[in-house]
Amino acid sequence: MALAMAAPAMRMTSTASFLPRLFTPTLFSGARAQLSFRNVSLPLFPSVVLAIPVGLQLGLPSLPSILEGIWEGILKAVPKKKTSHMKKRHRQMAGKALKDVTSLCRCPACGEMKRMHYLCPHCANKLKNMLNKEDKNGTHPAEIFSVAPTPNSLISASGSSSLRVHNTTEATFPLQQTIENAHKLGCHHVATSRGGAGNVAASVGFGGEIKIWNFADNKWTLSFDIPPTKSSGGDVWAVALSADEGYLACTTSDGRIHVWDLQAKERIQSYETGARGTGSFAMSVDLSRDGRLTASGHESGAVYVFNNDAGRMVYSLSGLAKPVRAVAFSPGCKRLAAAGNAGIIALYDMEHGEHVGNLTSASSRPAWITSLDWNDTGDYLLSGSLDGKVKVWNVANGACVATHSETESALWCVRWLPKPERALGPGMGKGEMFCAAGASRSLSFYREATGI
């Protein structure tokens, strides 16, 4: 292609250089044409003489001067030779390459001097130190999907393979223990009993396995695990523990709800929400503190309540048409809160199974609610959503009394912490606290502004 384009350019250049030399006005100004004749007489007609031209001399320039212009045009038309990468490398090794750009400028982020077109070393060092500091402080390297409080600690689970335990009896919430290789593929749910002793915890990994942990000698150790099902049943998703830490409820992707006896290590109950395992994805589950009821929220927007004593479904609750990502019983087991993609919190009465109200915010497009939790008295309800906002709701009047939006990252779990018996530090009251975690990979702790 390059040769084909170079050939017309060469002809045009040579012609343009040759024609002005050939037809310039000064070429013929001083030149004269001389014609030579020879007289010839015929033998038959001696008196007739013919003049025959035998030579013509023109005052044209010489041939070398003409070819000089043509050759000059040809040289101008030949494209330049491209330098190969190897030759450039050889010149660079020999010290004959182009000089590097050594201009300096100020970093627009930190204002320090740096080389132009290069990453700022000051910003890079600050970022490296910040990452090392976060790792030393015990934050997770991946998104935190679930947290579970105990009277003295908080267990957090993330997309990494380890579980981390933070001490909640000190003002700085230091890292107390790291359970390495708890789940190889990461953990998406962890649960402890509400109002219990805090000696049992359950976690579910992305591989479908359930692991039961016991707390003894100030250390969490593995008690036993429930391997993923090998039958046609769905994978385990959400889990919940009873208040006495003796029973475990878990949901599956095909809409089933299983109840396990942790002492006997066997499944004692299974609930179906569809014909032969065709139910909607069970995204959330909760056990009432008295152990009498089990509630599940599904992708179809349905909320089901089961009676564990009778082993059957007692309520099929309506009011939410979108996936239900969180369900939570009140401490007195009189109310059930459910929320999800609809962006509203539905409240149900557990005595009659009636829809008694909604908790909504003044927004045209409310964010998905991913987590719910009641405080110990049942007066306030905590919610976390995908827009990074934590809201505290007064259930009595249905008003939002506090909103925290320190991050724009999604929140996957919010939990109230047990009320401490003493103040964590000087100037800190004994009010209630809660924790929020999500895509920011950090734990955020909030405490009540007033209280004794």
TrEMBL record:
WD repeats lie at residues 229-270, 362-403. GO terms for biological process: translation. This is Meiotic recombination protein rec14. The keyword Ribosomal protein applies. Belongs to the bacterial ribosomal protein bL32 family. InterPro entries: Ribosomal_bL32, Ribosomal_zn-bd, SKI8, WD40/YVTN_repeat-like_dom_sf, WD40_repeat_CS, WD40_repeat_dom_sf, WD40_rpt. One of its GO terms (molecular function) is structural constituent of ribosome. Gene3D superfamilies: YVTN repeat-like/Quinoprotein amine dehydrogenase (2.130.10.10). One of its GO terms (cellular component) is nucleus. Keywords: Repeat, Ribonucleoprotein, Ribosomal protein, WD repeat. It comes from the Eukaryota. Signal peptide: none annotated. It comes from Podospora australis.
